[in-house]
Write a structure and sequence with these properties.
Strand content: 35-45%
CATH class of the domain at 586-705: Mainly Beta
Number of helices: 11
Helix content: 10-25%
Distance between the termini: 73 Å
Number of strands: 48
Shape: globular
Radius of gyration: 32 Å
Largest sheet: 5 strands, mixed
Amino acid sequence: MKSRFLLTLYSTFLLGVAAGVAQNPTQQLTNYRQQVPQEKLFIHLDRPLYLVGEMIWFKAHCVDAALHTPLDMSKVAYLEVLDKDQNPVLQTKITLDGGKGVGSVFIPPFLASGNYLVRGYTQWMKNFSSEFYFQSPITIANPFSKPAAATTAKTTTSYDLQLFPEGGHLVQGLESKVAFRAVGEDGKGIAFRGRVVNQQNDTVARFEPHKFGMGTFGFAPQTGQSYRVLLQDAQKQWFVYKFPDVLAQGYAMQVSESTANTLDVIVRAQGKEGAVSLLAHTKGIAKHAAQATFQNGQARFSLNKNVLGDGTSTLTIFDNNQTPVAERLYFKRPKESLTVAAQASKSQYNVREKVELDLGTQIGAAATAADLSVSVFLVDSLPAPSPVFIDSYLGLSSDLKGNVESPHYYFQNDDEVALDNLMLTHGWRRFTWDDVRQTKPKFAFPPEMTGHFITGKVVDAKTGAAVPDIDTYLAAPSKRPQLFVSTSDSLGRILFELKHFLGAKEVIVQTNTRKDSTYRIEINSPYSDKTSSYVLPKFHFDASWKNDLLTRSINMQTRNSFLPKSAQQMMTTEADTLAFFGKPDERYQLDAYTRFPTLEEVMREYVPGVAVRRRQGKFIYRVYDKLQSNVPFEEEPLVMVDGVPMFDTDKVLTFDPLKIKTLQVIDGLYYLGPVSFPGIVSYSTYKGDLAGFPIDPRALVLSYEGVQGKREFYAPRYDAAEQLKSRVPDFRNHLYWNPQVMTTSNKQTLNFYTSDQVGTYRVVVQGLTDKGVAGSKTFTFEVKKSSL
């Protein structure tokens, strides 16, 4: 009954979360967090630049969105590579174990050169905004395709300028701080001068950016006035933009630091009366609540920063009806961070020389254990995006919307002005108060807490209407029979819970055609169809890259030519070769018996536990129930060939018995998911590929990619003299990838060998403790040919 139980459980839990009586915002937020967990996914990509024909290696951390501790809820993570239009060009799934997973993706030769977006998420994350999927830009170069010719037509310069009133709104007559951000077509901030002009073209405010095209200015819009924004770029060109809407009545919010440990929150109102309240929460965890009344047109709150959690906090103002009326973000620098000590034994190496890399992790002065991933790759003149670092991602950019330019800058520099500008411009939250206040928030995607789910729908083949209470069967022909069963719910939805389903397989989905012959099954894509506001910078091919591209291309082709076959394969087999029904009651290796020309004779002569009978001109099987003194069941058993259910016994008995290797029988009632079977008769062919057995034409047959198997990163070693002198070329530009390095209180030493490719190599180390403290480290070393 497991599949039906899952559907019922998720319907009850996901459609009935947070039900209850009316609560204040603090209670609502606490209740929402307790019942609606939030995940973050960070993915360490082995490098930011690839050639077609190379492999993307990656490690995923799935953590609690607030605490950043590993979260063992979702068991599957999804990774996609999207083009500039956010269309997927590569997709894969990996297994998560304890909130961690590793994987790889081969880049096919047909991809064009350009900038691409890697994004990652879980099924549960699909219920929320795609802005909070993991997103990281990469560059893919294709040296085999001719780059697009540079256009000679004159292009129009354009900038994106946005204004963000502190708290959310501008109100007539109320002074407000207005943040702004201006970026170019590459998504990066620009240098400019700005003005606000009124309807008489009088300048009423001037502003310039502080950093990354962002800054603030003070402004009080006046009654009866309208405004425009003018931008003058570095080339003295002027551009005109719309000014934000101004409310006649409303609230204005101002946050400032009165002391090193105190925030002043001032609320001003126009045309509003009564008390207002403040709720401060850090990533969904309530930290402080207070109420204040208006005096002389303003309400004031004093907030001790020590009560806030590390990272991004949200300050929300509610009116006396508990409706949110103003909100902004505030960032508190983390009290502690993970220091990653990583150092190579030398700063310069010869080709094919051993590199020793010492690793250690500590918080403050105390050594601590951490889970690290390490990548070592060539740095050349080809442009590449900056890598995403786990500490700045989890601590900052993962809580913000859109492209955050150089997020690591805010962790490496004490630029509080730039940091507050970032909060005012990129400020966003993972939910809205409407979500929190719903008595029964609805979620379409259940968390994959046990394994990958394949979902779909049963519909009437003629009308297309959803059909409830239909048993459906999903199987993939193999030597190890796997069968998954689901019964459609009231909306016709089906859900198959797949465990140990690895690699690409042909999947056959069908109903019991003895009973249900007029239904059609539709299978859903497990990937997200949402897009985000992330904008990839335009890709421009530069002729000066020609030599480096040629070198990288030769290196890639040489490496792939000499790569051992074992390194090219992905392990997708399971040690457990038992069928889903376990050990059978009867098992027959047909090669051990006299071979009969028909399967009917085989069944009658060798298999006493199964009776072959005819009824109304058709053959049927009856299994003898061993628990009822071998009385035959009244219904037909589940009959399978290589794990695929067969509902036409006449067709089964016409199959060539010489193609069958093994016959197994369950002599009793067997329960699988929501259905029970009066026995099982399972045939296995020699290769587990159905051996030409015809599939019912009403069945849905499709190629389906399960979660990835295991693939090992290959790096040759030169421990012996004969290996060092080997004439096999070694032009690797990616020297080392290890996604599972566990440090302890003692330093750990890793070792690998350089290749024949000289140049500058970058080492990137990223990791996380089990307490949710993240850290990273990067440095370089040189590889040169020996002068001897």
